């Protein structure tokens, strides 16, 4: 009864798992139908085949390959996801276990390999990982573009700030000059008042001088006219200066607002740049994790 059960177990394994057996020289000594189909051969064509024929050159001709077989010959088993080559040279992925076969004395006389074809799953994983890498690349590129644009905007804001500082200095200078002009106007006004007063005194003296003071009176009248004209001009100039001063004060208030806006813009740009840097770091981490997924699965 146990023998029958054991046979059925082996039958079931043979139907569902790809199996192949090698001697210590790496030659195929037996293979089941499922394994032969997986790699695209007929069973009879695989007998005597060297294990290297099922591997790509990059692995078959490496020191890693030599160490792999050396470990098997010394009795060490191996289990992992492996990449193998079909008869048509296509890539096939297997979840495989290599188990050394020993004789009664414990010497390794061969190797049995049991495998499951995971090519479809691996291809799906590869596509997902490639999509992740592509997304990471897009994020990376967008983040770099965002950083560049932020830097460009920041440069323009610095230029605006520089212009603002120049304008602020100019406005300060204009204010000082306007105040100086107002001082000059006040001085001229005083002189005009004194001139007018002198003209009045001259007119009084001319009246006292009678006939001999007529010419002096004419001069006094002209001086009064001139003083009066100067006074009118001073009033007009003063009004214009007051208008200019008012406009300049508005400009000062306006530029103060510009300064605040520039400072806020610079702060926002720094925040945006920091956010883009975070996106860049995240995209790089995503690419790294995608690569790690490929090695783990």
Automatic annotation (TrEMBL):
**Alphabetized Gene3D superfamilies for the sequence:** Methyl-accepting chemotaxis protein, PAS domain
Q: Which keywords does the record carry?
A: Transducer
Residues forming the PAC domain are 76-130
Q: Where is the Methyl-accepting transducer domain?
A: 117-297
Q: Which GO terms fall under biological process for this protein?
A: signal transduction
Q: What is this protein called?
A: Methyl-accepting chemotaxis sensory transducer with Pas/Pac sensor
Q: Which SMART domains match?
A: MA (SM00283), PAC (SM00086)
SUPFAM superfamilies assigned: Methyl-accepting chemotaxis protein (MCP) signaling domain (SSF58104), PYP-like sensor domain (PAS domain) (SSF55785)
Alphabetical list of PROSITE patterns matching this protein: CHEMOTAXIS_TRANSDUC_2, PAC
What Pfam families does the record tag this protein with?
Answer: MCPsignal, PAS_9
Organism classification: Bacteria, Bacillati, Bacillota, Bacilli, Bacillales
The superkingdom of the source organism is Bacteria
- Name the PANTHER family for this protein: LYSOZYME-LIKE PROTEIN-RELATED, METHYL-ACCEPTING CHEMOTAXIS PROTEIN MCPB
List the GO terms this entry assigns under cellular component, sorted alphabetically.
membrane
């Amino acid at each position: 009864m146990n023998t029958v059960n054991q046979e059925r177990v082996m039958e079931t394994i043979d139907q569902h798992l790809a199996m192949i057996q090698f001697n210590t020289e790496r030659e195929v000594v037996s293979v089941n139908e499922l394994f032969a189909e997986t790699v695209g051969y007929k069973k009879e064509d695989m007998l005597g085949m060297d294990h290297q024929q099922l591997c790509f050159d990059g692995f078959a001709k490496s020191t890693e390959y030599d160490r792999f077989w050396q470990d098997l010959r010394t009795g060490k088993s191996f289990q992992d996801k492996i990449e193998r080559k079909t008869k048509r040279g296509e890539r096939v992925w297997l979840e495989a276990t290599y188990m050394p076969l020993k004789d009664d004395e414990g010497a390794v006389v061969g190797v049995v390999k049991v495998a499951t074809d995971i090519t479809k799953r691996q291809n799906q994983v590869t596509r997902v990982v490639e999509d992740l890498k592509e997304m990471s690349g897009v994020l990376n590129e967008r983040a770099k573009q965002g950083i560049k644009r932020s830097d460009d905007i920041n440069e323009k804001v610095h230029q605006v700030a520089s212009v603002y500082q120049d304008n602020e200095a100019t406005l300060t200078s204009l204010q000082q000059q306007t105040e100086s002009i107002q001082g000059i106007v006040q001085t001229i006004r005083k002189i005009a008042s004194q001139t007018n007063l002198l003209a009045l005194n001259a007119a009084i003296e001319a009246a006292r001088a009678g006939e001999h003071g007529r010419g002096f009176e004419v001069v006094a009248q002209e001086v009064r006219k001139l003083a009066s004209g100067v006074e009118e001009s001073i009033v007009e100039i003063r009004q214009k200066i007051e208008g200019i001063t008012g406009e300049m004060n508005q400009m000062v208030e306006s530029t103060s607002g510009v300064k605040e806006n520039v400072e806020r813009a610079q702060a926002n740009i720094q925040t945006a740049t920091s956010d883009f840097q975070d996106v860049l770091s995240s995209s790089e981490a995503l690419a790294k994790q995608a690569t790690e997924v490929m090695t783990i699965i």
